[in-house]
Write a structure and sequence with these properties.
globular, 600 residues, 35% helix, alpha/beta, binds fe (ii) ion, 20% strand, 8-stranded mixed β-sheet, 5-stranded mixed β-sheet, single chain
C-alpha cells in the first residue's frame, strides 16, 4: 500500500483553493470556494490552441475574476516532480542513452516545482502566506473522480497514459478521504497500448484515440485478436506490455509542446510493423486491415480494462466505482461496466482526462490534506464563463447581424421547430462546459431521425472522418424506452446499446455497433436544454437530439463573437444565442463575406 505524502499545513479553513493542470496536455484551472467547485476552464478555449500544454495563465485569471487573489489560501498543481524520484533516477542512471532526454524532463520538473514563482511572475499577487502544493498526478485524478461523486464510499480508479511515472492507481474512497491500494508503474500502461495503435493506424495527433475508438465499430476483431493479446496483458491489477512492441521504455517518452500544442513522439517499435504490416499513413484511405485491427485493439483494451476493474472490485469489496484518467473516457468500454464487472453504480465526471486534475488537485488539498467535509457533487459540466444578454447583443450588432429577441418559451419553440424541419442549429446558452464534450451549453443540434443528417453535418460543418459517430442527448426519464441500459450518463462518457426496434427511428445517432454515446438530460439539472428536447419530443415523438460540439476544427467556441463567426462561416442554418435567434437566410450577405475571406 502506498503511503500518503507528508505535509505540513496551516489548518484553518481557507476561502479559496486554486487548482492547476500545467506543463501537461489539456492544461486548465479550477477554483474551489468553501469546498464548492465554482469555476473550471481549459486554457485551449481561451488561447484557441487545442490541448494546450503550458502554464494556463488565462484560465487562472478567468477563475479569479471577481475574487481577491489574496483570499486564495492554497494553490495546487496536479504534478509532483518528487513522486517516485528514486525510481526515475535509477532508470536514467542505468540507461545512459536516456540522459539527453532526461535533461528536458528535469527542466520540465523544475518548471512544475517553481509554478508558484511562475504565477507570481505572471502578475498574480498571492498573499505571502499562500501555500503551494504539488499533488501526484494520479492522486489528483482519484480526487477528481471520488470527491465530486454522489457516493459516500466507492472504489476509485485512475487509468491513463502516464503521469508522475504511474499509469494506473486505485483505492477506496470513504467520506472525505481515500486510501491508495495499488498502482501500475512505468513503462507499463493501457493508455500507451491504445496510443501506440492509434499512431500505427494513422491518427498521429495528441488526443486522437477517440478516432480509433469510433473506427473500431466497423471491423471484425477476430482477425487480429490473438496477436493483439500478445501486446498487453493484465493480471491481478498489473498491466504488462510486451515491450518489444514499444520504444518509450528505451528511447524515452518524447512529449513536446514548444508551440503549446502537445506532440507525442512515436511509441511503437519495428516489431509492430513486422507483425501487423505497414503503418497507415495519416489521411490515406482506410482498409479492411485498419478497421479489423482497430476492432481487435478496442476488444483487447476492454479485456484488460475489465480485468483491472474486476481485480479492484474483488480487492476493495466495493460495488460502486468512480473512474478518471484518459482511458476512462473510452465510452465504448464504459458501456459494458455493468455487464462485465460486479460494479452496480458508476460515476465518471465530464473532465475525466487530464484537464480534470486541476479541480482534482484542489479537492485533494481541501479534503485529503485539510480534512474538510465534502459538500459538493458535480451534477453538470457548466463551470466555464457565461456572457450576459448585453454582451451578446453588442457582439451581434458589431457584426451587423439580423436577429430577433424572444422570451424563453418562444425561443425554445422556434428552435425545436427548426430542428424538426431538418435545420442545423447552433445553441449557445449559459455557462461553457468543462471537459471535451459539449453538453447543451456550446452545442450544435440537429434531428436524429434523418439517415442523411450525419453526412449533412460532416459536409456542411464538422468535416470529420465519416466513421465517427454523432451523439444523442435524451430526456433522462426516457432513457429506458430507447436504450438497453437505463442508468444516468449525464456526461457522454458511456455508450449504451440502442434498443433494436428503436434504431431505425434515430439512425443519425446509432453507431455501426448499435450503440449511442448518450447524454441523459435531467430536468432539474439542465432545465433549458431539457425544455428544448422536450419541445422536440412534443413535435416529433422522439425525445432525442443530435448534440455535437459548437466548433469547426478548433477548440469549442468560448465567446459570443466566436459563435457568431462560426455560424456565419459554416453552413449552419440557425443560431440561438442567449435570447436571440438568427436565421442564416437573413444573414446570407454576412455569411458570403466570411466565406470569401476564408477562401482568400
Ligand atoms: Fe492523466
Amino acid at each position: 500500500m502506498d503511503t500518503e505524502p507528508e505535509v505540513s499545513l496551516r489548518t484553518q479553513i481557507t476561502m479559496h483553493i486554486l487548482g492547476v493542470n500545467a506543463y501537461h496536455g489539456d492544461s486548465s484551472a479550477a477554483l474551489l470556494s468553501e469546498g464548492q467547485l465554482v469555476t473550471a476552464i481549459e486554457e485551449e478555449r481561451l488561447n484557441r490552441i487545442k490541448h494546450w500544454a503550458g502554464l494556463p495563465v488565462q484560465a487562472i485569471q478567468s477563475c479569479l475574476e471577481g475574487v481577491d487573489v489574496r483570499d486564495v489560501g492554497h494553490v495546487a498543481i496536479s504534478r509532483d516532480p518528487k513522486a517516485h524520484l528514486g525510481r526515475k533516477l535509477l532508470r536514467v542512471l542505468t540507461q545512459p542513452f536516456l540522459w539527453k532526454q532526461a535533461q528536458s524532463r528535469v527542466a520540465n520538473s523544475v518548471e512544475v516545482g517553481r509554478f508558484g514563482d511562475r504565477l507570481r511572475e505572471a502578475g498574480l499577487a498571492f498573499a505571502p502566506g499562500t501555500q503551494f502544493h504539488c499533488v501526484e498526478h494520479h492522486r489528483a485524478h482519484l480526487a477528481s473522480a471520488f470527491f465530486v461523486s454522489p457516493f459516500e464510499e466507492a472504489a476509485v480508479v485512475s487509468v491513463d497514459g502516464f503521469g508522475d511515472f504511474s499509469s494506473v492507481m486505485w483505492g477506496v474512497g470513504r467520506d472525505n478521504q481515500f486510501d491508495v491500494r495499488g498502482s501500475v508503474r512505468f513503462p507499463h500502461s493501457l493508455g500507451v497500448f491504445y496510443s501506440a495503435f492509434t499512431q500505427f493506424l494513422g491518427f498521429p495527433k495528441y488526443g486522437d484515440e477517440y478516432k480509433m475508438m469510433g473506427l473500431s465499430a466497423f471491423g471484425n476483431p477476430q482477425r487480429f485478436l490473438s496477436k493483439v493479446r500478445e501486446v498487453v496483458q493484465t493480471k491481478d491489477g498489473q498491466v504488462r506490455l510486451d515491450l518489444d512492441y514499444f520504444i518509450h521504455h528505451n528511447h524515452g517518452w518524447a512529449m513536446t509542446w514548444e508551440s503549446g500544442e502537445p506532440v507525442m513522439g512515436r511509441v511503437f517499435s519495428q516489431k509492430m510493423t513486422e507483425v501487423f504490416g505497414t503503418p497507415r499513413a495519416a489521411r490515406s484511405e482506410l482498409t479492411e486491415r485498419d478497421r479489423d485491427l482497430a476492432a481487435a485493439v478496442q476488444a483487447v483494451l476492454e479485456e484488460n480494462y475489465f480485468s483491472l476493474l474486476n481485480y479492484v472490485a474483488k480487492q476493495t469489496r466495493q460495488s460502486t466505482v468512480c473512474l478518471a484518467g484518459g482511458v476512462a473516457l473510452n465510452c465504448a468500454a464504459n458501456g459494458y461496466i455493468f455487464e462485465r464487472t460486479p460494479f452496480r453504480d458508476v460515476y465518471i465526471q465530464p473532465a475525466a482526462h487530464d484537464a480534470g486534475t486541476s479541480f482534482g488537485a484542489a479537492l485533494y488539498v481541501q479534503h485529503q490534506m485539510l480534512k474538510q467535509p465534502r459538500n459538493f457533487v458535480m451534477r453538470h459540466a457548466c463551470f466555464g464563463p457565461s456572457h450576459d444578454e448585453s454582451a451578446i447583443l453588442s457582439d451581434l450588432q458589431a457584426v451587423g447581424c439580423t436577429f430577433r429577441r424572444y422570451e424563453e418559451d418562444e425561443l425554445v419553440r422556434r428552435t425545436a421547430e427548426a430542428i424538426a424541419a431538418g435545420k442545423i442549429v447552433g445553441w449557445f446558452q449559459g455557462r461553457m462546459e468543462f471537459g471535451p464534450r459539449a453538453l447543451g451549453g456550446r452545442s450544435i443540434l440537429a434531428d436524429p431521425r434523418s439517415s442523411e443528417m450525419k453526412e449533412v453535418l460532416n459536409l456542411r460543418i464538422k468535416y470529420r472522418e465519416p466513421f465517427r459517430p454523432f451523439c444523442p442527448s435524451i430526456l433522462a426519464e426516457e432513457t429506458g424506452n430507447w436504450f438497453e441500459t437505463d442508468y444516468p450518463s449525464p456526461f457522454m462518457v458511456q455508450a449504451y446499446k440502442i434498443k433494436p426496434a428503436r434504431r431505425s427511428q434515430v439512425p443519425a445517432v446509432t453507431h455501426n455497433d448499435g450503440t449511442g454515446r448518450l447524454q441523459t438530460v435531467d430536468r432539474e439539472v439542465s432545465p433549458l436544454y431539457w425544455k428544448l428536447i422536450d419541445q422536440f419530443r412534443r413535435i416529433t415523438g422522439v425525445p432525442i437530439l443530435i448534440n455535437t460540439s459548437f466548433n469547426e476544427n478548433e477548440p469549442i467556441v468560448h465567446l459570443p463573437a466566436q459563435a457568431i463567426d462560426c455560424f456565419l462561416r459554416t453552413q449552419m442554418d440557425v443560431l440561438a444565442i442567449g435570447p436571440y435567434l438568427l436565421d442564416k437566410a437573413d444573414n446570407l450577405h454576412l455569411s458570403e463575406k466570411k466565406r470569401v475571406f476564408a477562401e482568400v
